[in-house]
Please model this.
Amino acid sequence: MRKLLFLICVVTLTGCSWLYPSMMLKTPRNYPFAKLNDSISSTDYKISANDFLSLRLYSQDGFRLIDYTNIVDNSSTGTPSSGAGSNNIQYLVEPDGTVRLPVLGRIPIVGLTIREAIQMLEQKFSQYYIKPFIILSVTNRRVIIFPGNPGTAKVVPLVNNNTTLIEVLAISGGITEDGKAKKIKLIRGNPNKPNVYMIDLSTINGIKDGCTILQEGDIIYVTPQIRPVGVALERLTPTLSLISTVLLTITLLKSVKVF
Model:
């Protein structure tokens, strides 16, 4: 019985995957992390399929607002953000890369930066309005953060184009007690072959990397602390309690000469 208990303890303490089945996004010991540089922070966001665009159009270089509330598009690709009477309407970029807009109809827009899209739309609207002035934004940009403890993950909207890693950590409540500030993974790009950056915010020297500007779809994963002994004892307590009960029962039965 002692050998069995010893074997259980050894397997438990060495089997981190058994102890921490909820741990995500692991990387091998010698994983080649990508290197952070200024270029990844300054990349302009490009409009993608399934984005929602908020469009406001003015004439005379912004002198007079064009009232779109009289041109409400009730189709599946154009939906008022707050019902009739709103001049802030959102338009869905469809999987084929086009968006359907009042007056212009369906136009390709995927792959353009916000600035490029504004220039293109102002040029097209100039056929119908005098000196059009456009305010355009993507309203559903977001990142996902796992701050270190199970059950604390959040989806954080990117309200500003220059939202940094430290800002998102602050919005989510900061790194949790079980999170490692020195091991923060920033996962970016194509899910089939993403770039993974390792960021250390445990010292003041990491402030530069902490000011990295986030992009749509980024995943921030704070590596959790591994406490094998405490977790092993917690997991083994029910088993040990059952074994103790069985041994006690056998001892009692032997004492009354049942065996």
